[in-house]
């Protein structure tokens, strides 16, 4: 016995007295000159090459072997080739180094033949090599019986606050298989958020937020966008190894906002009447590769908390020549990514800084009227509606005339312009009826 077909797997037989994959015995009945040996193909669904069964008659002393000495039986494949598909992949971009986007390439069924297919990448909104490492050509090989292979594309991490991006992996030139889904889409999900910095020139206070919706709403209310390449920074929207959540708290009496990564600080302030607002992303508590220190400055006079990655701004603000010094430096917020790494940072519109009472949450002492460690009952609250609730009591404190800024102030103004006053008047008409207590005449 010979051939490419395997006895038992590919065929069976009837008629032989004994039979194996290599030899067998056929017995002629007495007086009979012919006999029948039947080879029956075993049905399967495996796509494979045609197979053969070869029977060779060996000579014996009791008979003579004439020609032909052998016979060939062919088992024709009647199964369709399997199809190839590639998956879509979504990965978080990360903030340093690289991450792998792993695409699964699968056969619809196992094959009896070796299957090959070519894979290449192509740009979408993600562009190689800045966003990912391109694959010019990669041959994927499936040995008989294998059904799954992978294609790995290296994605380049960054700290840009940007939209999600995509690229594709295309399959082509398949052998012994057809292409069912020849394109896999790789989506790179941005996990960086810009920390917007806004300034309320009436209350002389800052608000920091990663919410674009909140940013837009506050700008519409008259807040100035101070997010620039020297005043803002980016944080992660996912919990990376070693990062801590950035808690934001609000004092509804004084209108102050405070950021901290310290859970004890947050919990204590909540017991004192502060409101815990949504966390503003994640940052590193200590120096990390690619991250920069985020300085925390506090204005003794206004109670304003200012966070900046700019050492130049920090030095300039601390050097403001007022006695006693209005700004003091607090424990740094942590380490994040510099705004200079951000994509399309909005232009600065204006900025102003007067001055912040020592309400470092690690101290909680002081007698300032804006002392944020005091229980809520000690100061009349200003109640605002759901849109302007707690936004630094916009109309309670009139515009100040002593703004000193390390960055240009719009038109070098020290008081509200007529346009700003008109805008605030418009907001007052819409929301003023909801404001309670402490309003100026």
What does this protein structure show overall?
The chain is mainly beta and 441 residues long. The chain has three domains: 11-75, no CATH class; 83-189, Immunoglobulin-like, CATH 2.60.40.2030; 192-434, no CATH class. The chain is built from four helices and 27 strands. Strands 16, 17, 18, 19, 25, 26 and 27 form a seven-stranded antiparallel sheet that branches. Strands 8-15-13-10-11 form a five-stranded mixed sheet, with no helix packed on it. The chain has a four-stranded mixed sheet with strand order 12-9-7-14, with no helix packed on it. Strand 16 (192-200) and strand 17 (205-209) form a beta hairpin.
Summed up, what is this model?
Helix content is 9%, strand content 34%. With 441 residues, the protein is mainly beta.
Name the assembly state: single chain
Q: Could you tell me the number of beta strands?
A: 27
Domain count, please report it.
3
Number of helices: 4
- Kindly estimate the percentage of residues that lie in beta strands according to DSSP: 25-35%
Shape by Cα distribution: rod-shaped
**Helical coverage, percent range:** under 10%
* Category by helix and strand content: mainly beta
Largest sheet: 7 strands, antiparallel
* Average residue pLDDT: 74
Low-confidence stretches: 339-417, 427-441
Radius of gyration using CA atoms only:
38 Å
**How many angstroms separate the termini?**
111 Å
């Amino acid at each position: 016995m010979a051939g490419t077909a395997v006895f038992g797997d590919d065929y069976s037989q009837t008629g032989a007295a004994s039979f194996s994959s290599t030899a067998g015995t056929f017995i002629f009945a007495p007086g009979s000159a012919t006999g029948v040996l039947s080879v029956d193909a075993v049905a399967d669904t495996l796509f494979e090459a045609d197979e053969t069964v070869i029977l060779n008659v060996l000579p014996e002393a009791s008979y003579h072997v004439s020609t032909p000495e052998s016979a060939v039986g062919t088992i024709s494949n009647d199964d369709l080739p399997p199809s190839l598909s590639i998956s879509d992949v979504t990965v978080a971009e990360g903030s340093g180094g690289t991450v792998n986007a792993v695409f699964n390439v699968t056969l619809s069924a196992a094959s009896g033949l070796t299957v090959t297919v070519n894979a290449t990448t192509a740009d979408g909104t993600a562009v190689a090599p800045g966003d990912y490492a391109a694959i010019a050509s990669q041959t994927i090989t499936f040995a008989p019986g294998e059904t799954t292979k992978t294609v790995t594309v290296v994605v380049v991490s960054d700290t840009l606050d940007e939209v999600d991006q995509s690229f594709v992996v295309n399959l082509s030139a398949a052998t012994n298989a057809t292409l069912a889904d020849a394109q896999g889409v790789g989506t790179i999900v941005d996990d960086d958020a810009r920390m917007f910095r806004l300034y309320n020139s009436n209350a002389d206070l800052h608000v920091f937020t990663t919410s674009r919706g909140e940013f837009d709403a506050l700008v519409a209310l008259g807040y100035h966008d101070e997010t620039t390449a020297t005043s803002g920074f980016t944080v992660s929207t996912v919990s990376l190894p070693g990062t801590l959540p950035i808690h934001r708290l609000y004092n509804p009496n004084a209108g102050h906002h405070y950021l901290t990564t310290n859970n004890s600080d947050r919990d204590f302030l909540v017991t004192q009447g502060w409101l815990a607002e949504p966390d503003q992303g994640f940052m590193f508590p200590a120096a990390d590769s690619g991250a920069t220190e985020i300085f925390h400055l506090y204005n003794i006079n206004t109670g304003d908390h200012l966070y900046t990655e700019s050492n130049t701004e920090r030095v300039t603000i601390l050097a403001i020549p007022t006695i006693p010094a209005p700004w003091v430096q607090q424990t740094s917020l942590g380490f994040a990514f510099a705004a200079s790494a951000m994509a399309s940072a909005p232009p600065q519109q204006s900025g102003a800084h007067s001055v912040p009472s020592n309400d470092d949450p690690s101290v909680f002492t002081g007698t300032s009227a804006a002392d944020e460690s005091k229980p809520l009952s000690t100061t009349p609250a200003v109640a605002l509606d759901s849109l302007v609730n707690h936004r630094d009591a916009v109309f309670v404190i009139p515009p100040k005339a002593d703004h000193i800024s390390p960055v240009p102030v719009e038109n070098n103004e020290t008081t509200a312009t007529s346009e700003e006053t008109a805008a605030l008047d418009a907001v007052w008409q819409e929301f003023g009826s909801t404001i309670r207590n402490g309003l100026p005449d």
